[in-house]
Design a protein that fits this description.
heterodimer, A: 315 residues, mainly alpha, 2 domains, 14 helices, B: MetI-like fold, 16 helices
Chain lengths: 315, 311
């Protein structure tokens, strides 16, 4: 890798000096341009990852720098995989992942389909719907705890208004049964526009002529929907699911602010649990093994999924 | 009369339009609520039933930017408030003793956000240009490697980064956070910019080279201006990401370089959470992003899918 000072100077050479480096071959220029990026990613991503893997086989604790550090083999991994709390966390994550994706796909696709009816002003309303997605999840999540307040919260008031229930009778983030749904709801509110935008691009990519041909063949609207619209949008939809899946597997900021993982452990997603192990209980080795397991899971699932996605695209 | 079979009928449009508008209003309500709460007094904010618009006051903003302490009536009598913000505090029996930390945190967000955006777009443009125009061995693998760095849960690499930063003296510094966010944003900027540069016809550069430009000149004078819109929208995406980031910020910063997202939820007033102040902080923090989103709407899709979907 060429990242010597000379290369860096060359890369930032002002145009007036560029003539003097005219002799550089295309290959050299390519490397000068790419090297800093690769170098930075190696330093800030790969190096830490390798370090994490190393730590995962040790009993190191950050808060006890003077304690003996030993290699413990796969003990950390065994502990994690037999820890019932970790499995509870995995279940909470699975619940969150499945429901957010189901709801976002259903609502997102429906919205995209409606917007694609090309009514007047659809651009304006699309932009408005998209807004929540771009905002800071931590700041917004924190504010949702206010909306969810039983006594004074807007959410409880609105639900009470339409159902006649007493607004103080339920607490979305305080109740063991409701809390897992409270995070699904806020995530769906925030990220449905993401699925919607991608679906909309899919719908708009379908040429009108296909529908016109179907119309000539007297295919019903219902049949057109299932034989043209759905298959052609599917690759887009799968891409949206991939992005949401990866993002929600890593979910931390929104939920930490919303419920803090509680009540009990009902909304403790894996990333939150991992943060506690690493930065509150300071079990560095254990947490590193945990991180490795998570990363391998995300990476493995994503690779399998991408293969499936490519198959759908080829069809 | 021209007639398209695929054009939806009028009632269909009405029906679809109504549903979308209803959804949009519901979905925007929490955001309107943040803004409206920021202009309420503490009592109005927790009124039952909730009111969309209460008596207008800047109390939330004053509380957000200042540190206050309770003062007796005699004290207030002896030192009458001189400015409008002191008056607002005095109405609640408080005196302002100094600025709060919000200003610093906000400034940190600006410094780290713009610093990392500049770096990641600068490095990203160079890399994207090379990936777009040159034969690079293992190009696809390198591009996939760059993308895969985004799949890592931040918490998973936070432990060694924490140790590394501690060793290098980078913990809780602007430089450390700028480097970190640059690295995280590079995947986005390389992928997005490669897409934008791919769309610039090769002929322009070839013509420039024939005219006697060097490769660098062709890059500066031909490619960069052509890619300006793409670079600008990439920059906004990087900025928004760095602006919103929470996990690294909360783990790796505390006093000096802490950004606004970990700070805003910790705003607590006298006697319970001061919701108008929190809402004021959120409003100041979120409104710029809303404006950017509206400006970006044409490139939004591309940005959120790393260039995988182009309209």
């Amino acid at each position: 890798m060429s990242d010597t000072p000379i290369d860096r100077i060359a890369a930032s050479t002002p145009q007036s000096l560029a003539r003097s480096v005219r002799g550089l071959s295309d290959r050299t220029i390519a490397w000068i341009f790419v090297a800093p990026t690769i170098f930075l990613l190696l330093a800030v991503n790969i190096f830490p990852l390798v370090w994490t893997i190393r730590l995962s086989f040790m009993n190191y604790r950050v808060n006890r720098p003077n304690a003996d550090v030993e290699w413990v083999g796969t003990r950390n991994y065994e502990r994690i995989l037999t820890d019932p709390d970790v499995w509870a966390t995995m279940q909470a994550t699975a619940h969150f992942l499945v429901w957010t994706i189901v709801l976002q796909v259903l609502i997102g696709f429906t919205l995209a389909w409606l917007i694609n009816r090309k009514f007047k002003g659809n651009d304006l309303w699309t932009t408005i719907i998209v807004l929540p997605m771009m905002l800071s999840p931590a700041v917004v999540g924190n504010f949702w705890t206010f909306l969810y307040q039983p006594q004074i919260g807007l959410f409880n008031y609105v639900i009470a208004f339409f159902t006649g229930a007493d607004p103080t009778s339920f607490s979305m983030i305080g109740d063991v049964e409701l809390a897992p749904w409270s995070i699904v709801l806020v995530d769906t509110w925030m990220w449905t526009p993401f699925v919607m935008l991608i679906c909309l691009a899919g719908l708009r990519s379908i040429p009108d002529s296909i529908y016109a041909a179907a119309e000539c063949a007297r295919a019903s609207a219902w049949r057109q929907f299932w034989t043209i619209t759905v298959p052609m949008v599917l690759p887009f939809l799968m891409l949206a699911v991939l992005f949401r899946g990866i993002e929600n597997f890593k979910m931390f900021d929104l939920v930490v602010q919303l419920t803090g993982g509680g009540p009990g452990n009902t909304t403790t997603l894996t990333a939150i649990d991992l943060k506690r192990e690493a930065f509150e209980r300071w079990r560095t080795g254990f947490a590193s093994a945990y991180a490795v397991i998570l990363f391998v899971t995300v990476f493995g699932l994503a690779s399998i999924y991408v293969k499936a996605l490519n198959k759908v695209k080829e069809r | 009369m021209s007639f398209s079979v695929t054009e939806p009928s009028k009632p269909q449009k009405w029906f679809a339009g109504t549903l979308v508008v209803v959804y949009a209003i519901i979905t925007i309500l929490p955001l309107i609520w943040i803004i409206s709460t920021s202009f309420k007094s503490q009592n109005d904010a927790i009124a039952y039933p909730p009111e969309l618009v209460s008596e207008f006051t800047l109390e939330g903003y004053v509380n957000l930017f200042s540190t206050q302490t309770r003062a007796s009536a005699e004290d207030l009598e002896a030192n009458p408030p001189e400015t409008w913000y002191e008056e607002i505090a005095a109405d609640r029996g408080m005196v302002i003793v100094g600025p709060s930390r919000f200003g610093e945190r906000f400034l940190n967000s600006v410094i780290i956000g713009f610093g990392s955006t500049f770096l990641s777009v600068f490095l990203g443009t160079l890399a994207a240009y090379a990936f777009s125009r040159y034969k690079i061995p293992l190009k696809d693998d390198l591009l996939f490697f760059i993308l895969s760095t985004r799949m890592m849960p931040p918490i998973a690499v936070a432990i060694p980064i924490f140790l590394m930063f501690r060793g290098l003296g980078l913990s809780d510094t602007h430089a450390g956070m700028i480097l970190l966010y640059t690295a995280v944003n590079l995947s986005l900027s390389v992928w997005l910019l490669k897409g934008f540069i791919d769309e610039i016809p090769l002929e322009y550069e070839e013509a420039a080279l024939i005219d006697g430009y060097t490769r660098f000149q062709a890059f500066y004078k031909v490619v960069l201006p052509q890619a300006a819109t793409g670079i600008a929208s990439t920059a906004i995406f990087c900025l928004i990401f760095a602006w919103n980031e929470y996990a690294f910020a909360v783990l790796l910063t505390s006093g000096n370089a802490q950004t606004a997202p970990p700070f805003i939820p910790t705003i607590i007033g006298v006697g319970g959470q001061d919701w108008p102040a929190v809402a004021a902080g959120a409003t100041i923090f979120l409104v710029p992003v809303m404006v950017f989103t509206i400006l970006l709407r044409k490139h939004l899709l591309r940005g959120i899918t790393f260039g995988a979907v182009r309209k």
